[in-house]
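Whiteboard transcription, Tuesday session. T.W. wrote the structure tokens on the left side:
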């Protein structure tokens, strides 16, 4: 009769299935997010999996083996299998029991288990790092204070409440005071280690299955300058943001880790609130210069950081290289490629980097933290001295399987939100995902089948006339509704052909200057007459365009799940209530019977696992079988043939996708003779090394021999190219 009070099915293979329609589903979700990783979360049944990393994250939040078993038994319909119980016991026996705490400018290794510290000191790398002269353990009480978070009611919820458990540890103690149960032992044992050997201790302990946790006792840090900054009165923290912060600041300390929230759900405000709570110097690392500028504006919007006239928010980018007073607390915002560049820098940039390396940062915020797993950008974490790290992302996935490295570089996953829950509560937009199957034009499909070059085949299905007609039709339809539209293309040749040659629309890509990007994006937001913008993959991350409610994707990066979710995130900002269920639209245009179909299916897996469903429509459902009725541009054989001729005449490199924005270092550099001689050459900001053809250097790119028997329109097209 009471089956609805037990919403979980816990399987021996560590899979857990949740009935999301249960009355206690929300409590169960909070608990499962703390101990397991979500696999798929559609509308009614959610699937989770308990893993070694998820139990490590649970232990880092203070959950004991007994707490995990108690929670599962309380919510599960079935009895727990012995193999599952043994797995949880083995993985939590050591995890979360050893912490490296920065307290009063000294590092301590502490644990409530004295025998565990004794075993840890038998490891050579740990014993060598112990402060000379110490032989006894320090003993003190574990002071577990609740941190008051600004912008929340009554200082925010407690850590145990955020994990769906009844009360917090202090409340449990109060309940035990009047009972015969023995009081919990809150003694903590510790020993001090040398400051320069923290990484050595972490590595040595990790090799012996002693995963260590990093915590920062910022409230007792009297040696680091304080950052006088408060949230403004209108800054209100949402319930799911409270849960994030409660887990980060559990028991009065700042805990390093990763927070996963959908795009548009307020990750930036979570990071700003964390910086305000710690109140020390903060380094923010973003993906692009545009994102750096947006972080600065958000700090000034949400906080009182610059109200006293001092400019304490400093940008470090290609155009901003200003030094600061190291005796005062500041906020520095830089991009990954500015910090992660390993070559020679210009003089001003090197001076700023020296300041960043020497500065003692209370907090480092890594925006789009999945980027930090790349080998190039590990320098952003390893070359800076930080006391606490916070990673923010919407998509904790990478196709190269390097996400697990983030647990070591940054910390465990602290919280991951449910996208559909936030959508139902109105915190993010309600998006309809639509995949439009576009028939390949016979002329293009014949060329596609004959081509052996994968790059040219890619160009042919991207420039498919049916796809172009659907794109033009959707732009007309949504512009007539007054919508704001972003059209994405990874391929620059496709982007420029759609935007400039055919539709005469604005576009920006990787070679667009930083100033021009900001001007174009600002005009796109403010000008009611500019409702469509074509953009390359530089718009995938950290572009804040709250009024955009339509995405049209005409080309993408193969089967990249993260890119699909990031592009959807550009329209997830809360929108006004619509007369229909949906107030935002995400279109993916796919050429039928090509390899693009396979890539599109794989790309959608992440969003499907979040509970989104794709509606499949055909191009004829939108524009019919005769595009001429709608006055679409590519509705005649002559115009289709002209596009095909342009593809045939295009350089092989035209089919290459644009490089990742975070993978470029655009700082001006110089080359010197071996041995440090005089400079003999320099390179501009936008110069990069890449493969190419000799025709590009000779000026022959895009030219071809003119066949005498070619159609008139084809000969005219080639002659125009030659004259240009």
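and on the right, the sequence the group agreed on:
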């Amino acid at each position: 009769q009471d089956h609805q009070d037990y919403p979980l099915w816990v399987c021996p293979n560590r899979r857990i299935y949740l009935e999301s329609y249960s009355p206690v589903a929300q409590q169960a979700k909070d608990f499962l997010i703390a101990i397991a990783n979500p696999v798929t979360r559609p509308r009614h049944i959610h699937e989770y999996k308990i893993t070694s990393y998820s139990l490590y994250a649970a232990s880092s939040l203070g959950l004991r083996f007994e707490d995990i078993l108690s929670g599962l038994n309380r919510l599960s319909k079935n009895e727990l299998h012995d193999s599952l119980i043994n797995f949880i016991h083995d993985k939590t026996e050591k995890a979360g029991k050893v912490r490296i705490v920065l307290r009063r400018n000294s590092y301590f290794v502490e644990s409530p288990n004295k025998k565990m510290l004794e075993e840890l000191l038998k490891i050579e790398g740990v014993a060598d790092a112990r402060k000379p002269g110490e032989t006894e353990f320090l003993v003190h009480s574990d002071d577990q204070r609740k941190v008051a978070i600004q912008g929340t009611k009554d200082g925010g919820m407690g850590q145990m409440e955020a994990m769906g458990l009844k009360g917090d540890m202090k409340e449990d103690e109060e309940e035990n005071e009047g009972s015969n149960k023995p009081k919990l032992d809150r003694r903590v044992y510790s020993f001090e280690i040398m400051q320069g050997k923290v990484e050595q201790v972490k590595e040595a302990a990790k090799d012996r299955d002693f995963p260590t946790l990093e915590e920062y006792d910022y409230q007792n840090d009297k040696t680091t300058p304080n950052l006088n900054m408060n949230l403004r009165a209108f800054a209100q923290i949402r319930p799911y943001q409270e849960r994030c912060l409660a887990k980060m600041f559990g028991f009065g300390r700042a805990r390093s880790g990763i927070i996963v929230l959908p795009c548009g759900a307020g990750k930036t405000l979570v990071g700003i609130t964390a910086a305000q709570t710690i109140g020390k110097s903060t380094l923010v690392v973003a993906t692009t210069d545009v994102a750096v500028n947006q972080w600065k504006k958000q700090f000034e919007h949400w906080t009182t950081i610059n109200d006293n006239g001092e400019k304490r928010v400093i940008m470090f980018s290609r155009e901003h290289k200003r030094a600061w007073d190291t005796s005062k607390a500041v906020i520095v915002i830089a991009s990954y490629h500015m910090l992660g560049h390993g070559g020679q820098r210009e003089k001003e940039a090197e001076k700023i980097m020296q300041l960043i390396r020497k500065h003692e940062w209370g907090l480092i915020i890594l925006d789009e933290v999945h980027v930090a797993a790349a080998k190039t950008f590990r320098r952003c974490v390893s070359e800076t001295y930080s006391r606490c790290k916070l990673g923010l992302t919407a998509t904790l996935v990478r196709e190269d399987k390097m996400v697990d490295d983030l647990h070591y570089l940054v910390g465990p996953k602290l919280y991951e939100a449910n996208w559909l829950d936030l959508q139902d509560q109105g915190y993010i937009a309600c998006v309809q995902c639509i995949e439009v199957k576009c028939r390949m034009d016979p002329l293009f499909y014949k060329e596609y089948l004959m081509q052996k070059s994968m790059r040219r085949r890619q160009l042919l299905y991207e420039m498919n006339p049916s796809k172009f007609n659907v794109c033009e039709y959707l732009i007309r339809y949504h512009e007539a509704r007054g919508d704001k539209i972003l059209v994405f293309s990874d391929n620059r040749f496709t982007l420029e052909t759609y935007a400039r040659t055919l539709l005469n629309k604005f576009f920006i890509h990787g070679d667009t200057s930083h100033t021009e990007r900001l001007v174009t994006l600002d005009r796109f937001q403010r000008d009611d007459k500019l409702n469509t913008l074509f953009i390359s993959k530089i718009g995938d991350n950290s572009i804040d365009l709250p009024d955009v409610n339509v995405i049209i994707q005409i080309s993408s990066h193969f089967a990249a799940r993260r890119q699909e979710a990031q592009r959807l995130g550009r329209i997830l900002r809360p929108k006004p209530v619509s007369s229909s269920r949906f107030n935002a639209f995400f279109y993916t245009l796919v050429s039928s019977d090509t390899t693009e179909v396979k890539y599109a299916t794989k790309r959608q897996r992440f969003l499907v696992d979040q509970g989104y469903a794709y509606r499949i429509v055909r191009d004829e459902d939108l524009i019919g079988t005769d595009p001429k009725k709608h006055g679409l541009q590519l509705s005649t054989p002559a115009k289709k043939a002209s596009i095909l001729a342009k593809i045939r005449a295009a350089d092989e490199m035209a089919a290459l996708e644009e490089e990742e924005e975070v993978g470029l270092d655009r700082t001006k550099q110089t080359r010197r003779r071996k041995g440090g001689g005089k400079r003999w050459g320099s390179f501009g900001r936008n110069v990069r090394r890449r493969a190419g053809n000799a025709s590009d250097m000779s000026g022959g790119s895009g030219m071809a021999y003119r066949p005498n028997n070619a159609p008139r329109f084809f000969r005219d097209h080639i002659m125009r190219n030659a004259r240009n």
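Someone added at the bottom: Residues 479 and 550 are 10 Å apart (CA to CA).
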